[in-house]
Amino acid sequence: IAGITQAPTSQILAAGRRMTLRCTQDMRHNAMYWYRQDLGLGLRLIHYSNTAGTTGKGEVPDGYSVSRANTDDFPLTLASAVPSQTSVYFCASSVRDSTDTQYFGPGTRLTVL
Amino acid sequence: GQNIDQPTEMTATEGAIVQINCTYQTSGFNGLFWYQQHAGEAPTFLSYNVLDGLEEKGRFSSFLSRSKGYSYLLLKELQMKDSASYLCAVMDSNYQLIWGAGTKLIIKP
């Protein structure tokens, strides 16, 4: 593994189903983030984690949950998917230093029908 | 509220120069980032400005004026591979990134 990986690459999901998007980084970055990207809108932060064992809510957290059991993994769970959660989901990580540059995974394209 | 504004789309010619503007209103300021995003791919980091002035990196330069809440990304000697969306993002007082919707840059031969 080099950088950040996400799985699955894409998924079609029936409304009401539970889904977990996986994110793993091997850069030993302290902070991790989940964003959604919709056409015409900027990236919107769903949840974040500044360090293993802690999580926080972003701009659009409703309907999503996260956990950060260790440094490398940051899964995002949709408990009961709805069509408005159709989007491209990006995971990112950063060192949390003075510049705090975020590095992104390749994304998961999720369609909820 | 917090707001990042940038043009939706711009068109330029191969070999030319283009300037993509970004204005922002945020609660606090801890730096401004530019990212490049090719269609269907992840955003990749281009530049970071925290002090006023120009930062140059090869064909790309980024400028910041904190007093005006303004930045631009300057791309020189445009190549077809520069066709992409360019995202402006500001780190606010809570050290969260606030993102603009992005500028789609179309390069014509």
List keywords for this structure.
heterodimer; A: 113 residues; mainly beta; seven-stranded mixed beta sheet; four-stranded antiparallel beta sheet; B: 109 residues; six-stranded mixed beta sheet; five-stranded antiparallel beta sheet; globular
Shape of chain A: globular
Span of the ends, CA to CA of chain B: 40 Å
Count of separate DSSP helical elements of chain A: 0
What proportion strand of chain A?
over 45%
Low-confidence stretches of chain B: none
Which structural class fits the helix and strand makeup of chain A?
mainly beta
Helical residue percent of chain B? under 10%
Question: Span between N and C termini of chain A?
Answer: 32 Å
Question: H/E order of the elements of chain A?
Answer: EEEEEEEEEEE
Describe this structure in words.
The complex is a heterodimer of chains A (113) and B (109). Chain A is mainly β and 113 residues long. Chain A has strands at 4-7, 10-13, 19-25, 31-37, 44-49, 56-57, 64-66, 76-78, 87-94, 103-104, 108-112. In chain A, 0% of the residues lie in helices and 45% in strands. Chain A is globular. With 109 residues, chain B is mainly β. Chain B has strands spanning 3-5, 9-13, 18-25, 32-37, 44-49, 53-57, 60-65, 70-75, 84-91, 97-99, 103-108.
Outline of this structure?
The complex is a heterodimer of chains A (113) and B (109). With 113 residues, chain A is mostly beta strands.
Write the layout of secondary structure elements.
The complex is a heterodimer of chains A (113) and B (109).
Chain A: E1 4-7, E2 10-13, E3 19-25, E4 31-37, E5 44-49, E6 56-57, E7 64-66, E8 76-78, E9 87-94, E10 103-104, E11 108-112
Parallel strand pairs in A: 2-11
Antiparallel strand pairs in A: 1-3, 3-8, 4-5, 4-9, 5-6, 7-8, 9-10, 9-11
Chain B: E1 3-5, E2 9-13, E3 18-25, E4 32-37, E5 44-49, E6 53-57, E7 60-65, E8 70-75, E9 84-91, E10 97-99, E11 103-108
Parallel strand pairs in B: 2-11
Antiparallel strand pairs in B: 1-3, 3-8, 4-5, 4-9, 6-7, 7-8, 9-10, 9-11
